[in-house]
Amino acid sequence: MNTATATATAAPTAADVDKLLERGLYDLWYPICPSHFVKERPVSLRRLGYKIAVWRDATGAVHALEDHCPHRGAPLSMGVNLGDRLACPYHGVEVRCDGTVTKVPASPGCTLEGSRAARSFHVVEAAESIWLYNSREYVETPPPLKLPEEISGPDWSSFLCYVEWRGDYRYVADNVMDPMHGSFVHKQSHSMSEGDISAKFKLRKTDTGFMFEKDGQRDVNFDWAEWADTGTQWMRLAIPYPKTGGPGGSFTVIGSYTPVSPQLSVVFFWRCRKVSGWQRDVWRFLYRNRLEERHWVVLEQDRVMLETMEPDANQREHLYEHDVGLSRLRKTMQNLALKQLTAK
Question: How deeply is 158 buried, as exposed, middle or buried, from its count of CB atoms within 10 A (0-12, 13-18, 19+)?
């Protein structure tokens, strides 16, 4: 076997796996920004290793192209919105939302016209957010976006909390898959001050992923965390509320996290309760006027903790029983990355 063949067939290394995970797995839906970020004028976002131009047409539909004109690389986001296409500000080249160059004003009929020369992205709007399908190759029709019922079903009411944190998005996922930190980092919280500070944990497989939960303690504190893959990866946890928190039972949090770079992550948390009718109105009023500020305090505690950890903190750990959940999460993600690299 010659050197070129040997290189082409070499198995992916641990560094290859980490590089893919750092950028974001392919063929998954990711939230990239809150809906209100995108208006008629194109905006430029760095997500998943790309610089992306996102805009709305006259009907309000959202479109996305790599923010790179196929002619000379100028930012399409600085151009003119022509509905389903953008006109580059540099030479007027028009690029349709599917990546096809429809017009080259300076050279009509040139070979660039009619070619699918730009990278395009499928985007949908759901749960107050814009979601992008990170396909490895262009696909005509992406798989449907399947979200948990808390942010897609009619029986739930939710509020989107969007933050940008300095650091790798995987640290955010690790933090959520660590219920025990709630009893320490958030011990002064109105909803996480109860329960034992020591606990036994167990892993439980689900149809879409797994749960990591305290054995013998439920609905007392941050007692369990769930990871799921439904074509988009999300996490779920529930915090019991005192009666002063209003109707709706436990307070459920759905989380999804998208990489910008190893130094920056965009973090989506939906705060949800199962309520309807007048109870929905009461819950939403209480949240906006009384509870939201308290939840921002809790989130700020997490931000400070994660942003002050060293970038290589997860390379210098001594894990114990409470960390089985995050170990499983990391191994699951590594296996998914290895599968994608091997298929490539």
Answer: buried
Contact 17, 11 (CB under 8 A): no
The DSSP element (H or E) to which 253 belongs, if any, is strand 251-261
- Whether residue 190 is predicted with pLDDT greater than 70 in this model: the reply is no
Helix-helix angle 169-176:292-307, to 10 degrees: 120
> Quick check: 100 and 84 in contact, CB under 8 A?
no
Whole-number average pLDDT of the chain: 91
What confidence tier does 295 reach under pLDDT thresholds 50, 70, 90?
confident
Cα 82 from chain centroid (whole Å) = 29
Percent of the chain scoring above 70 in pLDDT: 92
DSSP 290: I
What end-to-end distance do the CA atoms of the chain give, in Å? 20
Q: Say if strands 80-81 and 156-165 run parallel, antiparallel, or are unpaired.
A: unpaired
DSSP string, 11-43: PPPHHHHHHHHHH--SS-EEEEEEGGG--SS-E
Read off the pLDDT band of 195 (50, 70, 90). Answer: low
What's the confidence (pLDDT) of residue 222?
74
Q: Which helix (H) or strand (E) holds 162?
A: strand 156-165
- Mean pLDDT confidence for 159-182: 93
Note the pTM of the prediction, 2 decimals: 0.93
Query: What pLDDT score does 291 carry?
Result: 87
Report CA 242 to chain centroid distance, whole Å. 30
Q: Which residues, at least 6 apart from 319, have a Cβ–Cβ distance to it below 8 Å?
A: 326, 327
Tokens coding 269: 């948390």
Q: Which domains does the chain have, with CATH numbers?
A: 23-133 (2.102.10.10), 149-339 (3.90.380.10)
Give the integer Cα–Cα distance in Å for 334 and 323: 17
3-state secondary structure of 217: coil
